[in-house]
Amino acid sequence: MAIKINKKITGYNVVKPEDKAVAAPAAAATPKAAPMAEVIQMHESVQRPESLVGSTFKIKSPLFEHALYVTINDIILNAGTPHEQRRPFEIFINSKNMDHFQWIVALTRILSAVFRKGGDVTFIAEEMKAVFDPRGGYFKAGGVYMPSIVAEIGAVIEQHMKNIGLIHDPEMDEATRKLIAEKRAAFEQAGAKKNADVGAHPARDASGASADTESSGFPPGATMCVKCNTQALVLMDGCQTCLNCGYSKCG
For the chain, what are the domain ranges? Predict the structure, then answer.
């Protein structure tokens, strides 16, 4: 069979019959590469499935008459494989309060678009938590200070990302946990001794302290920590110490 060559010949090599006999077994012995499974990453072309999984959070702020309900739905990528992961896909915010309807709708659409873009979307939580209301913030349940309603929505998004494994809290070492427990016990003991020295009514003081502690989880009289924004900063031995994150002005 004749083969017509239309290009210029730049080199040639003569193949002998024995070369063909050696090349055939070598080609048969070479294992074929196993096909790699395609790992799907989040991007804007991923189609929304018929159903999504998600969570709904309730925000009760003193700035609003009615509560806000934040629903974050997730898409499951690479389901049933070692690469399975949940990623935020869309967010909805509902409330009976219609005063801020337009900016809430705009916020949900922008956030949903960012979620669907893919990549690292954890920065959203930090950016939103840094938004301050010029009229002032408020303390939510647990003694955590929220500088604005947008910041609390950001805190909700952060909590959801922690729940699905996108954000991981740094583990507090055992020494820090022990120190916080010792500081808290010493502070409560000093408070009880002070009440006894001034002849306070134990029953009334105990009930008041327990009510305050139950609502915030920290001793009454604690102030806000500048590191974790929690009302858990107490004065111990002339040094401000946080009973929530272990922060201390004295190092």
Answer: 53-163, 174-242
Is residue 167 within 8 Å of 161, Cβ to Cβ? yes
Average pLDDT over all residues of the chain: 80
pLDDT tens profile 86-132: 999 999 999 988 888 899 999 999 999 999 998 899 999 999 999 99
Closest listed residue to residue 57, CA positions, set 85, 86, 91: 91
Highest mean pLDDT range out of 73-87, 165-179, 231-245? Answer: 73-87
**Total Cβ atoms within 10 A of residue 186:** 14
- Answer whether 190's CB lies under 8 Å from 198's CB: no
Cα 162 from Cα 73, distance rounded (Å): 14
Separation between Cα atoms, residue 79 and residue 67, nearest integer Å: 35
- In one-letter notation, the amino acid at residue 90 is E
Question: What does the alpha-carbon distance between residue 178 and residue 70 come to, in Å, rounded to a whole number?
Answer: 36
Residues present in the chain in total: 251
> Which pTM does this prediction carry?
0.63
Q: Which residues pair with 58 in a beta bridge?
A: 69
Contacts of residue 121, Cβ cutoff 8 Å, sequence gap at least 6: 87, 88, 114, 115, 166
Residues 121/123/127/129 CA torsion (nearest 10 deg) = 90
Taking only the tens place, the pLDDT of each residue in 154-194 is: 999 999 999 998 888 777 667 777 777 777 777 777 767 76
Q: Tell the residue number behind the tokens 């949900």, with chain if given.
A: 108
The DSSP secondary-structure symbol of 94 reads E
Contact 87, 78 (CB under 8 A): no
Closest CA to 84 of 45, 37, 119: 37
